[in-house]
Design a protein that fits this description.
The chain has eight helices and no strands. The chain is mainly alpha-helical. The protein has one domain.
């Protein structure tokens, strides 16, 4: 068990405590809110990426940054493959953000691959910003709606809330794991990536990704 697993356990325990204190209805509502925010973020990510590129030319900024951090040796597949080697956990997410990855030949030039990585970085950033905005908006709306309400709940509702809260914490930890894995395509401290790869959290994420991909 690595420190990554300890951090994930902390998030799970925090979610469980919150779920127990607020009860099952609030914990379930929070889970549904996260799912709704994720769906909305996926819908908004593409137009947001287009807007960000048109306004700030972020792809050129990312290309310059990739050169500065020395990201010029890009791992590629053998000739006839799909081009860039993607991180194992987040590969389905990255392909869904940018279907062009499957069309990129392995013999593409380095500049073409850097441009593609920059475009992928913009779309990933747009997805994260859209998700953050949707989660913040939903949280603000529900806090205002439920402010001032504190009702006593049966113990079984609190225990059910504890389980739902633990699921919320696990989902958040898995989401962070996937984001860190996706960002490793661009840059990242190697010790952190090694600890992540050796963690039970990464194995759980890999199992869930395989099940969803089937």
């Amino acid at each position: 068990m690595t420190w990554v697993d300890m951090a994930a356990l902390t998030l799970i325990l925090w979610g469980a405590v919150q779920g127990y204190l607020k009860g099952f209805p609030a914990a379930l509502l929070r889970l549904l809110t996260v799912m709704t925010a994720l769906a909305a973020a996926v819908f908004l990510a593409d137009p947001l990426a287009v807007y960000m590129q048109n306004e700030w030319r972020l792809e050129a900024v990312f290309v310059d940054w990739l050169h500065k951090v020395g990201k010029t040796a890009i791992p590629v597949t053998q000739p006839g493959g799909s081009g860039i080697v993607l991180p194992p956990l987040s590969a389905p997410l990255l392909r869904s953000l940018m279907p062009e990855l499957a069309l990129l030949p392995a013999l593409s030039t380095r500049e073409q691959m850097l441009s593609l990585l920059a475009a992928l970085a913009v779309r990933l950033l747009a997805l994260l910003l859209a998700l953050f905005f949707c989660l913040a908006l939903n949280r603000f709306m529900w806090q205002n709606k439920n402010s001032g309400r504190s009702r006593q709940q049966a113990e079984w509702l609190r225990l059910a809330g504890l389980m739902a809260g633990a699921v919320n914490g696990l989902l958040f930890a898995l989401a962070v794991c996937l984001v860190v894995d996706a960002c490793s395509l661009f840059a990242g401290p190697q010790p952190l990536l090694n600890d992540l790869a050796a963690s039970y959290l990464a194995r759980t994420a890999a199992f869930l990704v395989q099940q969803l991909a089937v």
